[in-house]
Design brief:
Blueprint: H1 17-27, H2 41-46, H3 50-66, H4 73-87, H5 90-95, H6 97-102, H7 107-112, H8 124-138, H9 143-178
Helix pairs in contact: 1-3, 4-8, 4-9, 8-9
Length: 183
């Protein structure tokens, strides 16, 4: 059980039912019994404030599906995996396994991620993504590395990529604090 009581369904919400109805109605339009599943327990925790959860859901969707940089799913998932491993976010790692696999990350690549520099399983763009994500997480990005990212993905792509790393860093920290997988 998480450190706080998640709001998996509108009936779990203890305050204004209209706020919960708006959240679930927006996220699950036309669904008879809308609910967050186990892979979305972080969102169920954020739903303690329905407006926060709605904003986070919309931002997550936008960053993962609508950004041009994220169209290459393997790069997006490598960036997110790198963030989750950096923060030791086991819940997020587990809940995104199927997404990463569907996005083109093999089980062998996932297993080799911690030793990616010595692995031949990653192409040049994938290596750049892992390197840049780790460097962003360190807090200091050398100009030369940022230039490599701009050369590979353009200025807009560099900004989008950096946003993905930052946003999923937020999620990793949020999940590590609230512990949706704590039993």
């Amino acid at each position: 059980m998480a450190r706080v009581q998640p709001v998996h369904t509108a009936s779990d919400y203890r305050d204004d039912p209209a706020d919960a109805a708006a959240l679930f109605g927006t996220l699950f339009p036309g669904v008879a019994a809308p609910a967050f599943d186990a892979n979305h327990d972080g969102m169920a925790i954020a739903a303690l404030n329905p407006k926060l959860a709605l904003t986070l859901a919309q931002t997550s969707r936008f960053l993962a599906l609508d950004l041009e940089w994220c169209k290459r799913a393997d790069l997006r998932e490598l960036a997110i995996m790198t963030v989750n491993r950096h923060y030791g976010s086991t819940y997020s790692i587990r809940s995104r396994e199927a997404i990463a696999l569907a996005g083109g990350i093999s089980a062998d690549q996932a297993a080799a991620l911690d030793d990616w520099r010595n692995s031949n399983l990653f192409d040049a763009e994938q290596r750049l993504v892992i390197d840049y994500a780790q460097t962003v997480l360190s807090g200091t990005v050398p100009a030369a590395l940022f230039e490599q990212v701009k050369t590979a993905f353009g200025e807009k792509g560099a900004v989008e990529f950096t946003s993905v790393v930052g946003f999923w860093a937020f999620w990793a920290m949020f999940l590590n604090a609230t512990r949706p997988d704590e039993g």
